[in-house]
Amino acid sequence: MKIIIFVALVIFPSLSFADWKIQKTVDSMTDKITKTAYVLSKDGNRFTLIRKSDQKVWGYLKLKGMNQFKINESLLLRVDKNKPRSISDKMQKKFGISSYEWNPSLMGFLVWHGKSDEGCGFIGQLLNGKKLIIRYHPNKSTYKDIIFNISKNKAAIKGSLGLENSQCK
Questions:
Q1: List of the chain residues with pLDDT < 70
Q2: CB burial readout 30-61, b (16+ within 10 A) else e
Q3: What digits encode the pLDDT tens for the residues 36-82?
Q4: pLDDT at 18
Q5: Is the Cβ–Cβ distance between 58 and 93 less than 8 Å?
Q6: pLDDT score at 91
Q7: 8 Å CB contact between 130 and 147
Q8: Listed residue (128, 75, 126) closest to 102, CA to CA
């Protein structure tokens, strides 16, 4: 009996991190329904995609527990062997485009303009990828990599962003 319990604890937790999930929320003032797609890393960090009212898509990285980002953190994102993307407040400072939000345990960043007829960019990479790595710096001298298994339930991404099956293949 102890062996069966041990096997269940070793095998089943890894299954729960691998799937994208959809979360629906209802605004208590407007009754507007918002759908987000999210995936958890093995250690409980959360990456979320949300389409905002201007149709742009943002990504949010929420750290679990007491982990924190350094002030004005820049991130590196990489899907599989694609070229890494740098995320920082540079575009916001240079062009005045809202593209970056920071607080100690949650970072938000613009990931896609939201127009599938103009290309899918990073969203296309997520839909076709198996692994997302996000690198952040808890302080100036160190970095941490968060690894997300993004290979399962990609329909959650399309469902939360309102994409048709023919879009962003």
A1: 1-18, 91-92, 95
A2: eeeeebbbbbbbeeebbbbbbbeeeebbbbbb
A3: 999 999 999 999 999 999 999 999 999 998 888 888 788 999 999 99
A4: 60
A5: no
A6: 65
A7: no
A8: 75
> What is the model's pTM?
0.84
Q: Which residues contact 106 (CB under 8 A, 6 or more apart)?
A: 60, 61, 62, 63
SS3 113: coil
Alpha-helical (H) ranges within 56-167 are 90-95, 121-128, 155-161
CA distances from 18 to 43, 77, 105 (A): 12, 18, 22
φ, ψ of residue 125 to 5 degrees: the values are -65, -45
Relative to beta strand 33-40, strand 21-26 is antiparallel
With tokens 């953190």, the residue in question is 73
